[in-house]
Design brief:
By secondary structure, the chain is mostly beta strands. It has one domain (3-166): Gcn5-related N-acetyltransferase (GNAT) (Aminopeptidase, 3-Layer(aba) Sandwich). It is 15% helix and 47% strand. The chain is built from 2 helices and 11 strands. The strands form 2 sheets. Strands 7-8-6-5-4-3-2-1-11 form a 9-stranded mixed β-sheet, covered by helices on one side. A two-stranded antiparallel sheet has the order 9-10. 36% of the residues are buried.
């Protein structure tokens, strides 16, 4: 099992299960006694077109701590640098302010709104589509390997003091 950490180390995602079109992770809050905070996944992985969708689900007591943005950063690095993807996409309900804020904070751009596209509790609701990629390369500084691109299309911004360091990877 591989562990992916953010810099500074506030959250870890642990690779739990992978198949051809999805990878599921457990999210652990490193600032709160290493407690399980939720789960994250890349789903709908299309290796031919090098695309995937990103999903994050945090337990209620871990919401509002900016963990969603930290997890999105790690998933971006995993998708672009380790899986060689070109595009990541977030599909979320229009009223899911936390996911929209987390995705925007790491570089996702709104592509549009799918009107009344999702059936929830007896009603059709709007869905927002955001993505990152677009053929741009982000550069990250790795203390061991030096400076390298995040991968084809990767534009996710990592939080750190002055240099953009990638999530720490521990196998």
């Amino acid at each position: 099992m591989a562990t992916y950490l953010t810099e500074p180390r506030s959250v870890a995602i642990l690779g739990v299960r992978a198949c051809d079109d999805a990878t599921l992770f457990s999210v652990v809050d490193l600032t709160d006694g290493d407690r399980l905070a939720g789960e994250a996944l890349l789903w709908g992985i299309d290796l031919h077109n090098r695309t995937a969708h990103l999903g994050i689900s945090l337990l209620p007591e871990f919401r509002g701590r900016a963990l969603g943005a930290d997890v999105a950063r790690v998933l971006c690095h995993y998708g672009f640098a380790l899986r060689g993807l070109n595009r990541l996409q977030v599909d979320t309900l229009a009223d899911n302010v936390a996911m929209i804020r987390a995705a925007t904070g790491v570089g996702f751009v709104k592509e549009g709104v799918l009107r009344r596209a999702t059936w929830v509790d007896g009603d059709f609701l709007d869905e927002v589509v955001k993505s990152t990629g677009d053929g741009h390369l982000a550069t990250f500084e790795d203390p061991v390997r030096g400076v390298y691109p995040s991968g084809p299309g990767g534009t996710c911004r990592l939080r750190s003091g002055g240099s953009a360091k990638p999530p720490y990877i521990d196998s």
